[in-house]
Structure formats: structure tokens, C-alpha cells
Design a protein that fits this description.
Layout (H helix, E strand, L loop, with lengths): L8 H14 L6 E3 L4 H4 L5 E9 L12 E7 L4 E6 L3 E9 L5 E11 L15 E7 L10 E6 L4 E5 L24 E7 L3 E6 L10 E6 L5 E5 L6 E9 L2 E10 L3 E11 L5 E10 L9 E8 L2 E6 L9 E8 L5
Antiparallel strand pairs: 1-2, 2-20, 3-4, 4-5, 5-6, 7-8, 8-9, 10-11, 11-12, 12-13, 14-15, 15-16, 16-17, 18-19, 19-20
Length: 326
């Protein structure tokens, strides 16, 4: 991912004020991305609550740098990965009406290789996550497929953060730009595991990036949103399509989050439908959203990476996609 350590100046004051209010509290705080009227202006998406997480828990465990998340339906557990190589596990609480109410941290593990060594430096920059066997009705058999950005690869891990196999590398990742590798992972019926690259591979137009099956058999050229510097930051299944999360950050003022439906065809074409565009210029209090997961009942969570900056926030936001494919 590009260097985003300097946030939007437009957002800085509001974020800093929020940090001063909640910075001393090591508990999640309810918040919202926009006014109720503005949230109602996205007909393709309905909103079901947002939490701001603290920068660390009471025991000192750091929370920031979150890059993706995955929901284990069998265990009712949320997994979150950090681009510093941490794996967090948590429980969620919802109100009777389905509103996200609370986040309860369980434990945190460092990611380790098959020999038990903690991943360090560029090898630890986890950016994408999808779960295996997480909704088959069997407890205790979940594994995590994690994509890494700088040393571009993917690898399976146990829920304790220990690698269960050697890493996989693909020619589809060989031409990625520095710090713009395997940013999205999802499992799609009929295709299996699909990866997405953050931005255009070397030699490609800036308006396109690559989606590909991890087995290397299929590839698509995905058209990024028209917002300047838009980049793919997460993938998730949406019916038989993909839900794509994009972030467009143009220093010093513009931050836009796009939620889009991508329909993949076997002939290599992609049809994209825009579901919601969340811009700070329109009044949305968005941050650096980088992760997506489906949590059942057509609802999703997305998480933001605060870059360990006091001027940014770690947000977990719940929403449902109400748009149906035509």
C-alpha cells in the first residue's frame, strides 16, 4: 500500500478531537460514519453500526494497523490481521435489531512460519484474509489463508497464527508495484480462491488492476473507480459476485471509500456496479478502510487501518448490501 501516514488535513482536526476524547479509554466506543440522513442516501447499502477501537487494550496489546478481517461462523469469532504481523481474535455483540454494539478482544498472536519463528520485517506485512472451513458446521477445523503485500505471497495458518504450510508464490504477483501486492482475497463459487492486487501491475494503465484465481487458471482486468488514486483494498463474496472495497486518497484533502459489485465472466470480462460512494467531502467521517468480511444474514464488516497515527482511527463498521443483481 502507498504511504498513507499523513492523513487528510480536512479530517485531521476532527480525528484529533476524537482521539483526545477516547484516547484514554481502552474500550470500544460507538460512533457513526455520517448523519442518519446521509447514511440513508446510499440505497444500495444500509448501515448497522460503527465502533471506534482504542489504540491499545488495557493490558497494552496494540490494536492498530488492521488490514483485514474474517468471520468464523462455526465459532462465532472474528479474526483480524495487522500489517505488523499480528493476529487478533474477538467476539462481537449486536442489539436485538442487529446493530453492532460491542467488540470483546480475546487474544493476540504473532504470525509464525512453519518452524515456529515469528515473521519479521517485510515478511510480516499481512494485508488480506479469507477463512477455510469456517462455516461447515464443524468446530475446531478453521484455517486462515493470509495474503502478504511486500514479499507477495499467500499462506495458510492455524487460528493460533502458526503457518500450516509453506508459502505460495505466483507469476500473477511477479509484476506488482512495490508495496502494492496481494491486497484482497475472497472465495467465489465456481472459481475458488480469488486474489486482487491493490493497484495496476507494472506496464498496465493506472485505471486497471488484476483479479486472478490463486490456482493461476483465470485472470480479469478490474476497472478501478474513477476517483483519483483509487486502489483496491479488499474483496469478499457477494451472492455469486465479488464485493470490492476501494480507497481513493488524494493528499491533503480528499478521502473516498467506494463499495462496488464486480461480476466476473468466464471469458475474462468484468461488469462493475457502484453500490456506495463515501466521501469526506460530502460529509462522511471515513478513514482508511482496508478490510471486509461477510458475517451472515447479508451483512458485512469493514475495518480501517489507522497507520498507528494519533490523527486516524481504527473503525469497524457494519452494513448490509440491499442492492440485488439485475
Amino acid at each position: 500500500m502507498p504511504d498513507r501516514s499523513t492523513p487528510s488535513m480536512v479530517l485531521a482536526g476532527a480525528m484529533l478531537a476524537g482521539t483526545l476524547i477516547i484516547g484514554c479509554s481502552a474500550v470500544p466506543q460507538p460512533t457513526s460514519l455520517a448523519s442518519p440522513e446521509l447514511e440513508a442516501s446510499t440505497p444500495g447499502v444500509s448501515w448497522c453500526g460503527t465502533l471506534t477501537l482504542p489504540s491499545q487494550w488495557q493490558d497494552g496489546t496494540p490494536v492498530g494497523g488492521l488490514s483485514d478481517l474474517g468471520w468464523d461462523e462455526d465459532e462465532s469469532m472474528l479474526f483480524l490481521i495487522s500489517d505488523r504481523g499480528w493476529l487478533h481474535r474477538a467476539r462481537l455483540d449486536f442489539t436485538g435489531s442487529g446493530e453492532l454494539r460491542d467488540y470483546q478482544p480475546l487474544d493476540t498472536y504473532p504470525l509464525r512460519d512453519v518452524d515456529g519463528n515469528i515473521l519479521e520485517s517485510a515478511r510480516s506485512e499481512a494485508e488480506s484474509l479469507v477463512l477455510d472451513h469456517a462455516d461447515d458446521g464443524i468446530r475446531g477445523n478453521t484455517q486462515l489463508v493470509i495474503g502478504f503485500e511486500r514479499d507477495a505471497r499467500w499462506q495458510r495458518f492455524f487460528p493460533s497464527g502458526l503457518a500450516s504450510e509453506l508459502a505460495h508464490r505466483s507469476p500473477k504477483l511477479a509484476d506488482t508495484q512495490p508495496n502494492a501486492g496481494l491486497e484482497g482475497l475472497a472465495r467465489l463459487p465456481g472459481y475458488g480462491l480469488i486474489g486482487g492486487i491493490e493497484s495496476a501491475p507494472e506496464g498496465w494503465p493506472e485505471t486497471l488492476t488484476r483479479l486472478f484465481t490463486l490456482d493461476g487458471k483465470r485472470e480479469w482486468r478490474y476497472p478501478l473507480a474513477s476517483d483519483s488514486h483509487s486502489a483496491l483494498t479488499a474483496l469478499e463474496r457477494l451472492d455469486d459476485d465479488l464485493l470490492v472495497l476501494e480507497r481513493a486518497y488524494t493528499p491533503p484533502a480528499s478521502l473516498v471509500i467506494n463499495l462496488r459489485r464486480a461480476t466476473l465472466a468466464k471469458n475474462g470480462s468484468v461488469t462493475v456496479t457502484d453500490l456506495a460512494r463515501l466521501s469526506n467531502g460530502d460529509g462522511w467521517s471515513v478513514d482508511n478502510f482496508e478490510g471486509l468480511t461477510l458475517i451472515g444474514d447479508g451483512r458485512y464488516l469493514m475495518v480501517s487501518d489507522d497507520n498507528f497515527s494519533v490523527l486516524q482511527r481504527t473503525l469497524i463498521s457494519c452494513f448490509a448490501v440491499t442492492d440485488k443483481p439485475h
